[in-house]
TrEMBL record, chain A:
Primary residence: membrane
UniProt subcellular location: Cell membrane
Annotated ranges, domain ABC transmembrane type-1: 88-300
Membrane topology summary: Multi-pass membrane protein
Classification lineage: Archaea, Methanobacteriati, Methanobacteriota, Stenosarchaea group, Halobacteria
GO cellular component assignments: plasma membrane
Name this protein carries in UniProt: Binding-protein-dependent transport systems inner membrane component
Transmembrane segments: 30-49, 92-113, 125-142, 173-197, 231-252, 279-301
UniProt xrefs under InterPro entries: ABC_transporter_permease, MetI-like, MetI-like_sf
Alphabetical keyword list: Cell membrane, Membrane, Transmembrane, Transmembrane helix, Transport
PROSITE patterns: ABC_TM1
Amino acid sequence: MGLRNRFTTGENERAQQTVFGVRKETVEGIAWSLPYLAVFSVFLVWPALKGFYMSLHNWDPFVPSESEFIGLENYIELFNDPVFWDAMKGTIYFVALSVPLLVLLGLGLALGVNKNVKGKTVLRAIYFSPYILTVAVVTLIWSEVYSEGYGLINYYLGFVMSDPPGWLTSTNLAMPALAFMTVWWLVGFNFVIFLAARQGVPERLYEAARLDGASTWRAFKDVTLPQMRNSILFVVIIQFILQFQVFAQPFVLTSGGPRGSTDTLVYYLYRSAFSQHQYGYGAAIGYVLVMILVVIALINFKVIGTND
Amino acid sequence: MTSNRISSKSRRRFIKSAGVAGTASIAGCIGGGSSGYTISFWELFSGGEGPVMEDIVQKFNDEQPLDVDEEVTIDRQRTPWDQYYNNLYTTLAGGSGPDLAVMHAAYLRAWNKTIVPMDDYIDTGEIEGDYLDNHWDLVSVEDETRALPMDLHPVGMYYNKAIFEEAGLDPESPPTNWEEFEAAGNAIAEETDKWAFSQTPYNDGFGTWRTWSTFVKQQGGELFDSDWNPTFDGQAGQNTSELFWDMTGDMEWSPQTTEADWGANAFENGDLGMTMNGTWYVATLEESDIDWGFFKPTIAPNKTQDQVWTDGHTIVMPRSQDRDDKKSEIAAEVAHWLTTENPEWGARAGHLPAAADIRESEVFQNASFYDKTLSKYLEMAEEDMYFYHPKVPNGDPNSESWYQWLLDMWGHNYASPGEALDDGISMVNKGLEE
């Protein structure tokens, strides 16, 4: 009996063993999964179901059992709520500003550092370092940078212009300012993922491309990008999910202003639930956001595809 | 001075950021035991008031002033002002709130579900006489004593005497009417390189409302009708909106900025002539280097009545699933002590205490700023000038989302003051929804 056959036979024997009439393999599988499933159920499935239940009610937080069932009324009201649509537009604008930059800049930095440049170890540390900061620290730093009266940017702009702009107080500039800050903060994560993916591409593929006379651009297009497709898909989806949920930046720096120009879906959800005390309405906003993210993830899968 | 300016703003940002980072304190309700009772107490005092309340609580814990057998300790938890009510409501909804909490009187109707009446745990008929009548009325809602009153904290006008002098004005004769106020503002704008006026040091919506509603009421306007429909878009509201629009427009009294704390930074750095703020501002100004003065804010144009915005701090007993009757009775006694035995709440924090005896006390009347602010605030009280921040039936009456339009109007983020006013009506209507 060959080695392969012996192992195969052993597996078959174990698979056929039973515990109380259930295959032993199945019992083991369930046992190994249980701890995770328990945590998953308590902290994700149950709150998600409860949230959906709340979104169908005029929720009374003090006597939940007396909450009035209103069906889809919260959702219908949501679609007729101009503040919701403004928050939706604000979120999409923020995502449109931040996600392409986060992906392209992360990719560019990774490909750049992957080359044999001097000081690349230092550069890697510099690019990644903002990512280790919490959002609270990031917003504190940038509130000093963006301040209209004494901020770092306007201090230097003051040498060349008499009336530097209010980065966080202009309806046109506030959201781009938040997006730029977010790119500075988070691009390091994408950089690390892309760098690891690029280093996983076999050099022989580039050698073959060179032998076939491929230009640098052609090698990038036909070797680098296809080989990194999974990591690109991962980063794009993660960034869409994260940036659609932007909250702390407008909450701390602009309170959604000026004139709602930095309002976002999650910030509106927070205000509805915790300031207006309309918990059911807030839950409905959350569910709409989930639906949007599911659709975007599916589109990304379709457009980018995977290597599997 | 620059470092002061930065630190003031940074401090406020840090507090808000700390909340985002999840470091805001959550009080536990520690029950009574063989060693005594711990009364958890939530408050929102920052700036100059914070240390005063900290000292008052420390005094209680050291002196054990209650006539009870057990040791009673107050466990004070402070939450930043702009997150306080959101945190409090969410915790109360979960049934795990503190034993006592500071609450503005304006909440005592809308937040009825979150609190238990004081009548249930203390003989309110007996203690009523400890407080001034108007303060007791403030906490009496729908035949219940929903809180014990701490103070009134109306607004007034603070000014920089050095800037007045630089503008050719007499720093000892501040404005008493619109004509003098307008002349002072124009003189500062034209004769100095300083800014003339900020509607609130904090440059926020709620602070702007305090000043804006004062001007509206002085012109005979109404803020809400008897059914709580907002009516502040009448003629007085329109006139005041246009005036505020012009102050950051043609009059050039203030820049068109919505940057948080702009006025506080400018005033405390000697770059701003006048600003309107509450009683509490003295605690901050007393620590600053500027030579400041104070005058009554009864200076609206076309004034038909003397009206000045105020609200009052009160202490409520949040509902709790865990607190037994004995502990509730002790908590009510603690609230009574906090509101009646501490003249420093007026003498150091700058408020008008609710307790009658405190008003007469030497400590209060010997406050370093008594002649400058307290005496004038008391005169306004005696002349019945104060109108109360409305006790609305629903919502969060201090929420920024009700008043954001005022700040955006001040910053000219609307096409016209009328557009802002229309937006304001719809925002407040939304805030009032159940």
